[in-house]
User: Fold these one by one.
Assistant:
Number 1:
Amino acid sequence: MSILPAGEIRKTLLDDRLQTAIYGSTGRLVGKRRESIDDPVAAEFEAWRTHANAIKRHTIENLDYYLEELERNIVKRGGKVVWCKDAEEAAEFVRRLCREKGVRRIVKSKSMTTEEVELNHEVEKDNIDVVETDLGEYILQLAKEKPYHIVAPALHKTRYDVADIFTKTLGVERETVIEKQTMIARRVLREKFLTADLGITGANFLVAGSGAVVVVENEGNARLSSSAPRIQIAFAGMEKLIPRAQDLAVFLKILGRSATGQPLTVYTSFLSGPRRPGEIDGPEEFYLVLLDNGRTKVLQDPAKRQALYCIRCGACLNHCPVYRKIGGHNYPWVYSGPIGAILSPQFHGVTRDPWLPHASSLCGACGEVCPVKIEIPKILLELRRDIAEAKEREGEDRVQQLAFKAWAFVMTHPKLWSLALTGAPYTMPEAENGWIRSVPGFMKIGPLAGWLSQRDLPAPAPKSFRRLWKERQEGRQ
Amino acid sequence: MSKRVSLFVTCLVDQLFPKAGLAMADVLERAGYEVEFLEDQTCCGQPAFNSGYWGEARQVANHFLEVFEHTSGPIVVASGSCTSMISHHYGDIYRDDPAVLERVHRLESRVFEFSRFLLDVAGADEFGARFEHTVTYHDSCHALRELGVKHGPRRLLSKVRGLTLKEMDAAEECCGFGGTFSVKFDEVSGGMARTKIDSILRTGADYVCSIDSSCLMQLQGALLRGGHSVRTIHLAEVLASR
Amino acid sequence: MSRDLILSSIRSSLGRRAGQPVPARPPVLLKIPEVPLARRIGQFCEALGKLNGKSLVAKNLEEARDYVAGLVQGRRAIASNAPFLGECGITSIPGVETGFTGRMALRERCATYDIGITSASFALAETGTLVMLSSAEEPRLVSLLPPVHIAVVPTSKLLTGLDELLTLLPDPAGHTSGMAFITGPSRTADIEQFLVRGVHGPGEIHVVLV
């Protein structure tokens, strides 16, 4: 069971530079999204969201059917489907394939699913050179860090950080100009693309009716990873399915806009199987790794399985006031932000990180912007209930439980409540202008201490509303 | 609907910010309504619900239903989050109990957040108010996203004589209260309040206004701690000002 | 076997049986606007221009050829095997090599030459997008490896947008192992959200509509 990483969170909150980076970057993405969904597409955008939600609902509710259809079509196009029930199986498949095919170098484009599986770490055990090719991921790989954000992984790094990382790991002369840094990465990675035996990509969508994998990107590294090496593996969570290629019309329109404010990303690849007879380039072998790793568990709960509709746009992260303060590294798993808060407990069980669903003010900004209309705040509330029930069963957190029982007792006995209202002013220290700055040491515990650490506390009004109301009414007679 | 309304002042107003409740009553009377306050009212149950204690929330919700279902007119609520608790989440609490659900549906159609009541039911937006200050409006999250309250309060404020309304850039960002979140994650909550305050200060306003006392409590507490002179004020108090 | 375990687990969660058909699914949402060619051309150029891509509307094949020749000017270019490029006379521009059918030979040139020249199966006006279907005529790497990409496309291939493309091509997998949409030059903003073009794909793109 993990404990709230209070120390790490505090460090993040006190790091002014990091705060500016997180708030500024996410703020820019918020603005870009807003621009791209303004008129003239504003009304249509809402229709797209509704439609996308309906398609995802239908697909997830009939997931077995579409998985089989996908498999049939991938095989029809000459590819192979590898069903992996967990991370170990997925990693084992890749390692085995590399051994069989003599793979010495792998190029990877961005895939959160491979992060879930810790693929790089596993594959490196066999002394294979596995290289992240998305610029942000590459920088993090060199720095040995995890991604900070689903779409903008190196959000927290400055050009000076990047200069340090490149000098240290690539042995190049220190360079702080961003264009030049990008060209260094381009040069190094080009060589990797052209000498790699295997390319691994993620998948934004799996098209059942076509037997295809759809990958969207801006850099070109996913196209290169899927076109240059002789073997391609696409890694995807099983929930990425959509029924028909024509459904992409809606999904592509909402994905780019929600993520970065782009009507379309620079590149969209629609890949189905190894290269066909007559085609000159493209992989000779094509594998789709279909990952479960807990998704079947999430499916079990009809109210919460909508979390699987996620198309990984990152909009919820960008709009979440909590994410914008604590950043991506303070979440316990690879998925951060609001989507992480509802996926992690469903994958790992609510008691593993019981603080996570509570790390939200329930402001609802996430649900408001989710392109596939996942009811994130509703799921958070359901998870909080699951946690309270689990704690009750395990006899934990008895103080909080008893406190709410007592509170409910008072609130269902109006005379007690009235009494509390009358008595409350006497329990608190004198308040200047009605606000308390501090309380005596023995009172500085629990919620009171938490409140006072950040703000002044309102003193109970000398006369409650109901008393003043009585006086007001009596005064009129 | 009858010209008699029942007030649900909310536990927070009852205990900490009674002036907002009195102001609400004043404005409703000015709009031509007879106002009653049922003494047996306590709370909507939201604190327990948001913390996952749905059993305890249900007990308190039961009490709310008992107190209010025998009224016949509108029930006007001094807070957006309490209103949406009743209209959006009582359905969750009672989803396994169709009989009670029926009672909830009958009641909730009469439950209104204060600004909504004034504009949509009373059909009034002007109350002879005067408030000679610069005010910026904070969009309380539940009211904004669950009730769709956005333009109403701004319209009401625009009719107040002498009032200058200034829009802050982060109007829709959460103040950081979130109930027990404010104390369980106090540092994050405080950080959120300070970000909001930066936005408020950039407007140069003297007052920040909203329809939810919980937000105002969070912001005022943080404003005072930060040594700022900006004050918070409930919409009702602005509309009741002469 | 994992496949069976996963499928049976899914079925028990969803209350479905093996082989059970699916209920009616939401219909596809495709809307094709009525846009005359002249406006489509304008839309395409405007959309591409916003992304820093360059476009030229050529009145005839000669003008197209001249423009491309001006860009090639002393540099080495690899052209795909698209017949339209031959029709335009682009394959006879000095410095342009074409006719490669061997994977390694083609790749070697794509990796070292300055310019890649292709046609395209379609172009999309709304977004300034090129639609490339991998084939014997259009290999993948020509539009990807060289730092400059020039595409010469007949206006007859210019569609209104994605909806029209997917209406015409409901299953791209039936035609190719790799369809790519190209919308402007390669770009990244991964470092400090600062925009840089030409990370891995071409940083410079020219589309000649004929």
Number 2:
Amino acid sequence: MPEQNYPEKLILDFSRYIVSRINSFEYQKYAIDQEDLLQSIYVRIYKIFKNSDKKRACSRLYINRIINSVVIDAIKKSRKETEIVNTLNHNMIAVHGHAYEKSKSQSYDLKQILLRSLNELKGSRRYVIDLYLSGLELDEIAQLQKWSKGKTNNLFYRGLKDLKKRLKKRGIFHEN
Amino acid sequence: MKTDLLDLKDAYRNFLEGNKPASRELCPSPEDLVLLVRSRMPRRDRSKIMNHTAKCSYCLQEVKTILDVTNKENKFILAMNDVLNSAVHEKPAQARPLAKRLSWNYVSVISAVVLLAAVATYSVLHFSSRSDFRRGPTANIQLVSPIDKAVSSGELRFIWEAVPKAKYYIIETFDATLDLIWRSESLTTNEFQSSPDILQKFRPNEKYFWRVTAVLEGGNKIKSRMSEFSIRK
């Protein structure tokens, strides 16, 4: 790769990353052209570097605006499609709901006990534990809540301790 | 019954999956989710949205995507700044024709200044015995090898031109998304042969970049441009 093309390559790699994250909304299902999306993001970012003076182009504001609009568009499209799929699913569940109810297993018990125990946690500890269990890392929770890492860790470990106590009362022993 | 964090996570996600809202009408708008991640939201609104997000798998996935994208965006902006700044130092903007920029009134003054500067530069270069005047602390480090090529794993040897007054060097390698893969300790020579445990960090046939930072005696640093390489199977 020639050195002169390096900024272009950076922009392309970044655009690919955005598309890959947007793919987590399962766009493939809805036949949205990946290449078109990649191309449009690449061109929009490339233009500001090509046409503006370098200092202005590098300012966060310009990149922020582009990425915000791309992500917001993607979420809106995804929501629209999900709405259609959900309506179909709910119709199916209405028809076959009885069979579905019978297939609930032991994990159902754990789920119910966990929910009851979580409901007894209070305030910020509850937030942190909920978000952690749903798949966010502690760093990400700190970033979202604008808390320090120390505060987030503290709330997490205290919340987990409370949760373990409550689970134990209900006959579930938590192993580290 | 015994359980651990993984079981709890599974159970909670199971709950979220089972409680997906039939309609997204009550979910916060995508604009609000972006504001939430980008720190431009009053605390009360933030709590409200976070409360919802912790229980809605759709919104959670969207928030996670925005978080990932925002973090990547920060890295991208830093990398672009780095690249553009180094390009500006190396290639000053192309000058417009002199006649367009200068009126004749200034020509004599500027000529005199240029002449003085030329004499001063010549004196320093000619009369100084210190070779590093010719390559001061703002000079770039020239990478020698590997540059834009694939090398076999046994031959991964980083070589660059020595910098006068460099106290030590540090090599950094990055993957295609510019995440740091490996950083060397302080090196006192201008080459480095990779050991097998370092080579393990690189996957064959993938693109990587490397650069060298020279730390000078006064504590100043000079960074080289990045160069691409890959490892053959």
Number 3:
Amino acid sequence: MFIKRLPKFEYHVPISVSDALDLLAKHDRKAMVFAGGTDILVSMKKREILPEHLINLKGIVELKGIHYDEKEGIKIGALTTLGEIEHSEIVKDKFCVLWDAVNVMASPQIRSLATIGGNLCGAVPSADTAPPLIAIGASVKIVGIHGERSVLVENFFKGPKESALQRNEILTQILIPNPLPRSSGTYLKLMRRNAMDLALVGVAANIRLDLKRNVCTEARIALGAVAPTPIRAMQAEQVLVNKEIGEALAEEAGKTAATVCRPISDIRCSLEYRCSMVEVLTKRAVMDAYERIS
Amino acid sequence: MKREEIVLKVNGTDYTVSIEPWRTLVEVLRENLGLTGTKKSCSEGECGACTVIMDGRPVASCLVLAMDAQGKEILTIEGLSEGEKLHPIQEAFLKHGAIQCGFCTPGMVMAAKGLLDENPKPTVAEARKAISGNLCRCTGYQHIVDSIMAASKMMDKKS
Amino acid sequence: MEEYSVVGKSVERTDGRVKVTGKAKYAGDLVAPGMLQGKLLRSPLAHAKILNIDTSRAKALPGVMAVITGRDFPGIPYGTRPDTRDQLPMPITKVHHFGEGVAAVAAVDEDTAEEALDLIKVDYEELPVVLTAEEALKPDSPPVNEFMKSNIPYFSDFNFGDVEKGFKEADHIREEKFSSQRVTVGFIEPHACLAEVDPTGRVLLQGSKQSPYITWRHMCRALDIPLFRMRIVNPFVGGAFSGKHDPFDVDFAAVKLAQVTGRPVKIVLNYDEVLAAYRQRNAMDARLRLGVKKNGVITALRAECILEGGPICGIGPFNIYYFGAFLNIPYKIPAIEYHGKLVYSNRAPCGTVRGQEITLAQFALDSLLHMVAEDLGIDQVDIRAINAVTDNWRTANGMIVDVSGLPECIKKSSDKIKWKESRKGRPPGRGIGFSCASHPSGPRLGGHFGSSVILKLVEDGKVVLTHGGTEIGQGANTVFCQMAAEVLGLPFEDIIQGVSDSDTAILDSGMFGDRCTYWDGNATIQAATDLKRQLAEIAAKELQANPEELEFKDKRIFLKGKPEKGIDFLLAVRRAYYERGTPLYGRGYWAATDIDIVDWKTGKGNLAHGLDFIATAIDLHVDKETGKVTLVKAAHGDDAGQPINPLLLEGQVTGGSTHLAGQALFEESLYDEKGVALNYTWRDYKQPTSMDAPEYVVEHVHTHDPYGPFGAKGAGEASSCSTMAAIANGVYDAVGVRIKELPITPEKILKALKEKEAR
């Protein structure tokens, strides 16, 4: 009911991924990994989760760092903090839709601790990094005792707080392909106030225009906080493809996006409002992305 | 589930404390080290009262395990002034009416330090954003923002 | 205007340095040798009989020193008034709201105390819940408070002037309903206290309390100990805003556990507990009917109000009177009829919050005034200027306005917000809303309300000042030093703020209702004058002059107009201490017995001196697609008489305005149908952040209050009172929709826009 001091646990600080996996295998259901701790520690204080073994991943150097390559794109270690992404020139310049998200997440003192890996693995429907990563075709690298696998972020979420991670797997890296010329994206987040809040609705739109005119050749629209998981609004994307971007078209995409969302009403706002806002934010995100290209 | 002896470097001094792994940094600072300048209020990272600087970045110390603070440079409000000599941010807070009840003040000052160390000439919007994770009920934020802008000018003159 | 040396200057606050260095100690920072940690077990139900509490397993846990429940207290109820004694330290027969503390544990450390809570077994029998005013008003509603028969514990009815005549004279009459939501107080420091009992049974309480006197009186009654057996020493308080007057279960439990264990006991809450179970502002439902002439002059007002206040009266009886009383101000209303009811419920207990009920009354009245002005085609600034209270005005219910700077305030705020230019045209979605308000400088709530100050003159010529009006951030500890320095002709640095200790501070009702600057300020002047008289007598002998002919300035005492014919202040001090063996101290007391103890049921009388005035203009933007409101700029024209410390005063104005912007737009304490709190976390109770506050411009209108210290008026709360209506009116100005139910959420705006378009 009320927040308490943290419960007892055994603490482990592995220095490699394989050590971490061994610990997970050994303690199985009694263990949890954590990185920034900004969600997990709060849940533990509320006694929502009670891991007997807490495995701190922050000692694993290979999970850190941002590496950009003009051919391969960007590789972001799962332990990269939201603050590090916020301060990354390369992310701001080439992957601005993701930068938009970290720019409006939590507060400076949370961004210094919270990690992109944690945001994804927490798998809350309103996770702000999800819609942008879906919109730019990102994938995640997952490591387990059976080896490595890769999953597109758009397939990474199974349900509220449920990701594609199998038991005893660790998300190690986020990979984003290099942006194609004449493409850009925007993430818009609707909150109750202007800072330090969850998304009531989050919309990421990434579009690509052809080289000569303003015809959209590719579009990806992803919605957060309006379904059990972050989702792609493919029908809305289809509205844009092969057409010239403009206000009316963006509005139509918005209307279509609103038909695919399945939000709930909660203490924050009603589902009707969320649907209406999907329409508004999608329209605005598309126009904003378009403006960024020009 | 035993106590472990760890060394925390706080305000330039090494402290050896014997703690369990489930102790948070704010608890250890306040209860083990007697540094009560860092405040505790919501314990869930929503208010900023527990803000300290860790390796140059402002962090919510209620969400940092004390064990994880080993090997890091921790700066609390007590470490900002040198004896009676106040840091320019503190001088500015005094001069521009940024302090009323004072409870949010340590967190605000540390958030301001985090900003100015990284961005010495912020705009008003950047100053507001830097303290957007620090709740204040007394001041309405105006004087705090004024103080940050003034501190930035003061620090600019000195360098 | 007089030229002062210290008063009127923005001197650095006396407690600024300790606060900015993190050295100021708040209740949660205190330690005592052998201290135990306390924790409270809270009810998961809003309304239930307590059948049994089994504490045996908790008591048996190693490290637990004591476990107590409501039954460990004498069972003597206390309350604000003799006829509303409806509170117990901790519940005995039943719980009244979600999160009410039902048991408390003292243990060697916090972890053990928490573990012990899980071992306490409480058997409840659920009772039907009363959640809203509507439910409380039903004749068969289940009784909420076991000490009162009815769920309507208090009411206020008044009728002044001839309302029927007033409505007949009106050219236009409009009636509207308004409502406001439950909100929490929202100070940042959670409740905390350290209690110690010495071997003689004397209690020392150091807690985050706003008015030690009120705490002290209630606690001694409920603990059944004589008044002299309790001593309260106040540490720094991390904000209060009227949410920390009463003693709470935190304070009672700490004392009782200290009594039982013989060791100091500290209890510090986590903020989610504060949000769940501690003081909120009453929810309000009101109906107002306003009559005006073609030219905008108000002729009559009829109002009804229901305040829903949780399971205790607290200050509720005053609140229900206050709502009606302050409908009479800041506009000239010749006739008013008012009916107010205070009702119980099973939501968190209410007290009062910054601006008190005036914030709610003003929200309703100034919104209605805006509507009426629009109906008549009268400019919003003009209608307020036309009706603004002026000097020497007596309201229909007998409140006396000595000095009103309101007309000037209106002019200043409208100029600063560029009102006239805005009427020519503005960008889509932009609007400006106006409101005025008035707030008294400390109401006289009873015969024993007063303030006292003691000045101790130290042998080295410095002065230690003690008073009972707590420093909660508003600057009390600074402005009195300024006043004392001014009277004694000493530099500000020579006056030191002493400790707030009930053993040495005499009667003082505490810090609320803007009273400190005014009441304690006057007491300070009296004390300083007393001290001056003693020093003048000594100096007069030295100078062979008449004591009445002496002036105190720049650390000297000299013949008026002849500074060379004088002695150093310090010499007079030394004569007293070293030659006469007489210590010097000044005593001052101010109780404003010339104002009335108003009967809250009938509402007649002059409640307070020093009515301060404010005119607020808020420039805002409404996003027509999302409904989001962005506050751009707020211009306040504020009449606080003679500003004692302009910088502190400005901080009061900006603070109150941001606070109430939160109630206007984002804040609401929510409950489910069983009265269980839904959003008792700052994750979902959204108070304004730095990015939500507008840019502020504060213009002081300098007047001179005849009763105020140096002509000052209290200033902490006027901007709280005017902000909500200004925002509501601004939204209307921006997009043409009128929201009368607070908070003004984006959803409400969009719904209203849709309805408007459909018409």
Number 4:
Amino acid sequence: MKLYQQTVQKIGEMLARREVTAQEVLASIAERIGQVENKIQAFTTLTLKEAEGIAADLDSRGEVGDLTGIPCGIKDNMCTRGIRTTCASEMLENFVPPYDATVVNKLKSAGAVMVGKLNMDEFAMGSSTENSGFFPTHNPWDLTRVPGGSSGGAAAAVAAGEVFYALASDTGGSIRQPASFCGVVGMKPTYGMVSRFGLVAFASSLDQIGPVTRTVTDCALVMNAICGHDRQDSTSLQLEVPDFRSYLQTDIKGLKIGFPREYFQKGVDQEVKDTIKKVLLKYEELGAIVEETSLPHSEYALPAYYIIAPAEASSNLARFDGVRYGYRDTHAEDIIGMFSSTRARGFGPEVTRRIMLGTYALSSGYYDAYYLKALKVRRLIKEDFDQAFDKYDVLISPTATSVAFKIGEKSEDPLSMYMSDILTIPVNLAGIPSISIPGGFVDNLPVGLQLMGRPLSEGTLLKAAYAFEQATDYHLRTPVMEV
Amino acid sequence: MALTIREVEHVALLARLNLTAKEKETYTEQLSSILEFFEMLNRLPTDGVEPLAHVLPLCNVMREDKATPSLPKDEAMANAPLSENGQFKVPKIV
């Protein structure tokens, strides 16, 4: 087994025992990137040179830690001091942040070695990474298919062995759906668990940063490093962060699992449903109590989300005006013209569409009918979850309605692309934690299993995920790529 | 609900987006079909439901009113598309 194929946990142990050096680990990753990156196109920016310096420094100091010396990637919507942060948009193509996001700072203190910034749908708006303003990313399991989105670069890079783990963001499923399509582990923590300072805002009441890894154990290790209160983010929670490793146990006897019938209805491919039904049988074998339940307002989550998220985005993206940073169209003669042509040229079609949609939903005369209505629906969705969690510890569903779809298959029809988020969106509206792990395969393409829990129950989710992972071998399968 | 081109032009003006004639047509069509999809929300009665803008029970998070170091001016200005004498330069406003 090559070094790049190992897990964060294993590499950490090898580094701690001095069996390898951080520079050797990085060399293996650099070689792998050299082999496959031209096919996958996961990175917007590679920082291998900077990484070499950091790895050499770590080796000379001989420090050890769970993430020390381990190469990772960061979704390109998190600010990295001195390294461009583009959001995969022409608007920010040359933007070099003067500060680090809090999560980047935390990883740096933990001795992480960042090898690059990862491709995404422009401003995290999309479900396939085809909306990247630069180029699409390809799924390592089948290069003619999308890796999911918006964190397609993160999931593809982790699956292809180009990084050991990545940080991504999830506003309506942007960590979990690509994790599902690429056969890796992706966690969206409880809203407020991880600081959003330095994350380029899309929809502030929904955005949350989380890990993309190859195993549940690695997810726990990265969670340990990124969670916690930050005075720079007033919505980050004041709480003691547990050692998430302590939840990695396989005994789940008596765990109460509900599967919401609305998540197994029309719109979800039969093979995907069958795969997750088998997962439920496995959980019963492991001693969990599995019952059907209901989240009755589920069908209203998608329209509510596509009002709330664009409304918040239209406000957040007002800052891109060509004045202080980012692209500017220099042809206009007056300032309104400068704003308007800068924004029309700097933003791609999906971002423009969502700004228009959000502006409309918030505009005079339509606010009550759309935005306020959507906020009321959001309450009903949250209450559905509250009631379900009175009875169940964990809810289980497919993460996505299908396996990875073909590049180009949905890119012409915005509404059909929106539909692909239907199973992940309710979690963001309710602010609860959720994890997607490999749950099986259909025609050699991964199927994601989504676990959802009550607020701050990341530990329970990790335990339930770990028990399933240890009882199956799906996480050990890797995409075969000709090199 | 079908949008008219005029409504799309109004929204584009509010959003400061200078759209081409072709883009206006495309967005009129696409946004209309998205709004039509939203109409399913009208089937759900929500009278008396409190709107939920934010999931956390947080309100007015305060910190001590104490100055801390901030970015040096040249770093804060470094990404400006156009600047002069340490100030952002923009086209004519009045």
